Amino acid sequence: MSSTSSSASDAAASETRLDAFNAYRDQMNERILEGTDHLGIKRFFRLDDAAYDDGALPGDTKELLGLVASTVLRCNDCIDYHLQQCVNAGWSDEELLDALNVALVVGGSIVIPHLRHAVETIDLLRSREQADS
């Protein structure tokens, strides 16, 4: 396999990964929130949403903080979610990498695999932006 077709297939696999994550997240959130009457779970989901609303800190800054926390906690699904929010909010690659550097310093070398995952996701999101423009 040539490096070009390998890169194309890597990009397709990454895109499929992110699409699958978004579909699964939406499906399960709907199942959890609409398929149950558990008040505590519903309240926590609402609290999580409200935490990223504008307040003393703007919502886009809170999303960047969420990215750092998710990276330190080593949650790739959370990293993908917050990166999508951060890219939609207009954060540049340089700003995202600077925030990820903070996560690396706080979390240590165990964060490196999740940093790789984050960079792959940033690349995917940027390639989607280019395809859409």
UniProtKB/TrEMBL annotation:
<dbReference type="GO" id="GO:0051920">
    <property type="term" value="F:peroxiredoxin activity"/>
</dbReference>
<dbReference type="Pfam" id="PF02627">
    <property type="entry name" value="CMD"/>
</dbReference>
<feature type="domain" description="Carboxymuconolactone decarboxylase-like">
    <location>
        <begin position="43"/>
        <end position="120"/>
    </location>
</feature>
<dbReference type="InterPro" id="IPR003779">
    <property type="entry name" value="CMD-like"/>
</dbReference>
<dbReference type="InterPro" id="IPR029032">
    <property type="entry name" value="AhpD-like"/>
</dbReference>
<protein>
    <submittedName>
        <fullName>Carboxymuconolactone decarboxylase family protein</fullName>
    </submittedName>
</protein>
<dbReference type="InterPro" id="IPR004675">
    <property type="entry name" value="AhpD_core"/>
</dbReference>
